[in-house]
């Protein structure tokens, strides 16, 4: 193994890019779930999934702002991602229960 020196700004840059990828993946997942839920169950369960897309878009925007000097250390991004994932899980459970009834 070679011991390559890293740039001082590389770790924050990688963290910012990781948050951006997380937000984009959450955005795609929420839009996909909203689309599938809308087709299968109707707009009742698609609305929370679409609102989760707004939260995911906020994660992407906040990660982009962090690149320009804002900090990612306050814990809002992990909290928003946790809420969004829990909302998507609730939508999927509701969709599964609607199919059983």
Q: DSSP strand (E) fraction?
A: under 5%
Number of helices: 3
The secondary-structure class comes to mainly alpha
C-alpha geometry: elongated
Largest sheet: none
Helical fraction equals over 70%
From N to C, what is the helix and strand string? HHH
As a whole number of angstroms, the C-alpha radius of gyration is 17 Å
Description of the structure:
With 101 residues, the protein is mostly helical. The chain has one domain. It has helices at 10-40, 43-66, 76-100. α1 packs parallel to α3. The longest helix is centred in the first third of the chain and has 31 residues, at 10-40. It is elongated, with a radius of gyration of 17 Å. The mean pLDDT is 81.
Short synopsis of the structure:
By secondary structure, this protein is mainly α. It is built from three helices and no strands. The chain has one domain (16-100).
Topology:
Elements (H helix, E strand, L loop, with lengths): L9 H31 L2 H24 L9 H25 L1
Helix pairs in contact: 1-2, 1-3, 2-3
Keyword list:
101 residues, mainly alpha, 79% helix, elongated
């Amino acid at each position: 193994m070679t011991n390559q020196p890293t740039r001082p700004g590389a770790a924050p840059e990688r963290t910012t890019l990781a948050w951006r990828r997380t937000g984009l993946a959450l955005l795609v997942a929420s839009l996909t779930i909203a689309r599938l839920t809308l087709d299968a169950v109707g707009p009742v369960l698609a609305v929370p999934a679409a609102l989760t897309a707004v939260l995911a878009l906020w994660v992407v925007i906040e990660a982009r702002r962090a690149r320009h000097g804002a900090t990612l250390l306050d814990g809002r991004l992990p909290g928003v991602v946790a809420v969004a994932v829990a909302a998507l899980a609730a939508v999927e459970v509701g969709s599964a229960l609607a199919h059983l009834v």
